[in-house]
Amino acid sequence: MTNPTETELEEIAETRARYFSLRWFKELLSGQLGFGDTFWLGNYGVQLFTVPVLMLVVGLIVASAPGALNGFLGGVFAASAVWQALLLLALFKVRARTSARGGWVLAGLLLTAVSCLIALLGGYAYLFEAR
Fold it and tell me: What are the alphabetically sorted keywords of the record (predicted)?
């Protein structure tokens, strides 16, 4: 889109304004967005907001109550596992709804499934194995 019209620019602005709203999250998790948006924004776009906040909270916990860190991180990993599982289901819905096929789609499904497994293992380790 080299020279978008005024109408196209307005559509782009409306689409961008919806990102990360409650409605957008509902569309994301119900598989109504495209495969690329669901994979990239669901996996990494959300982390652009959550990771900095979590790092600040971890710093505060380490400074004030270090003994609470394992429980907090276990909860974070558990929440991440739930998010990744919901995202994986959404990706399967998108794949079933659209003609999304091929190596990149398979790689996206596999990477999201592995991320979910890693989060489950991390949650287990911090909640039940860490001393």
Answer: Membrane, Transmembrane, Transmembrane helix
